[in-house]
Amino acid sequence: MPDPSVLVVGGGPGGATLAAVLAKHGVRVTLLEKTAHPRHHVGESLQPASLQLLDKHLGMAPRMAAQGFARKYGALYVWGETREPWSVLFDERLERDLPGLDEEGLLTGGYDHAWQVERSIFDHLLFEEAGRRGVDLQVGVEAMAPLVEDGRVVGVSTRDHGDLRADLVVDASGQRCLLGRAFGLHRNVDDLQSTATYAYYDGGGGVPGVLGRHVQFVVTVPDGWIWYIPVSPTRTSVGIVVKEKARMSRERFEAILAEAELPALGTFVEDEGLRHVRDWSYACTQTAGPGWLMVGDSACFVDPILSGGVDFAIRGACSAAVGILRILEGADATGVLTELDERLRLEYRAYLRLARYWYGNNRSVNGFFWEAHSELGADRLSTPLRAFVWLTSGRYAADKHFRVFDEWQEQQMFQSLGVDASRLKRAWKDRAT
After folding, report:
1. CB–CB of 312/395 below 8 Å?
2. Which of 5-9, 303-307, 328-332 is modeled with the greatest confidence?
C-alpha cells in the first residue's frame, strides 16, 4: 500500500473526526492509536456545535441519538456574587417556554441541545466512523517522535513498528502534545493550573423542575467548584476542581460533596473508583508548520469550566480537514497552514479570556454575559446573554467554519463544471451594478 497522504497520531475525538472527514472526500488516511477503544476518558459534557459539526460532515445525528446519551439543554450555575442559581439555555425559545413545559414537552419540543456522554462510548463511536469511512486504523501503534527532513515533518517514528511517512502529519495526541513538546512549543498558563477528582454515581437525581437530568449543574465551593453531569438516565459524573496538586482522598471528596447543595447523588460506583486528573491550561505557540499541524488538546487546553475541550477538538478537526483538502487540491500549503494556526490561536485566546474572567468569583452574573458580548462585537446578537451562549456553546466559531466549508464546496462544484468561480462572481457583481 502506498504511503498515506495524511498520518494522524491519536484516535480521540479530534483525530477520529479529522480522519473520517478526509476519508469521506477520498484522502488516504492512516490513524495511529496506541490504546484500544473503548477506553475511559473524562470530559463528558458537550456543546451544541459539536453535534452540528458531526452531523454536517458525517451525518452522525441519528447515531448519536441512538446511544442513549443524556440530553443537555444548557447549564445551571451557582456562581457569582449571590448563591441564587442561574441558567444558561442553548435555545432562546426555551427561555420563554420553560415555565409551561413538562418533561415530555421539553424532550419533544425540538429545542436546541447538546449531549452529555459516556466518553468511552462516544469516542469509540467516532473511531468506528473513521474506520467505516475507509481510514486505515492502526491500533496498538505508538508514535514516538516526528521525522524531520530539511525543516519539514515527513512522518513519525514509532515504538516497535518502524518509521511511517506521509505527506502531512496531524498531531491529535491529546495532552501528550507529541509535536509541541518535541519542538519546544508547549507553554503552561500559570494562573489556570487545576486538578480534578471525580467519580460516578448510579441512581442520582436532578435539578428541580422540568430540566431535571437534562442540564449540567455547576456550583462553587470554598475549595473550588463541582460539576454534576448526568451522562445517562441513571449514571452521573460528579467531580471537584481545585487549585492543588495533591491527590484528594475519598473522605475529603465526600465531605466536600456533602457540604455542597447538590441534587441527590445516588450510589457511588465502586468499580470505577475515585479518579484524579490534571486540568492544567496550556497552549502551543505554533500549531501548524511545514508538513504538520495540531488539533484538539495537542494544540491547547483551557480549564474545563466552560466544557469546551471536545468542541475545540471536533471544530478544529473539521477546519483542519477543509484546509488539508485545499492543500491537496493545490492551494498554497504555507498560506493555508498559517491561516489554520492563526484561527485556532485566536479562538483559544478568546476562550481563555472568558475562562479567566469566569474565575473572578466576585463578579456579577451579568458581567459574564457582557464580557462575551464584547468578544463578539456590540451589535452581533440581541442581548449579552445570547452573546454568552453563542460564544461558549461553540456556535460562533462553528458558523465561521461552515462559511469556509460552504465556500470550498462551492468552489468544488464550479471546478467540476469547468467554471472559474472568481470570474463568475465578478460577472454577477458587474451585472448587479
Report:
1. no
2. 5-9
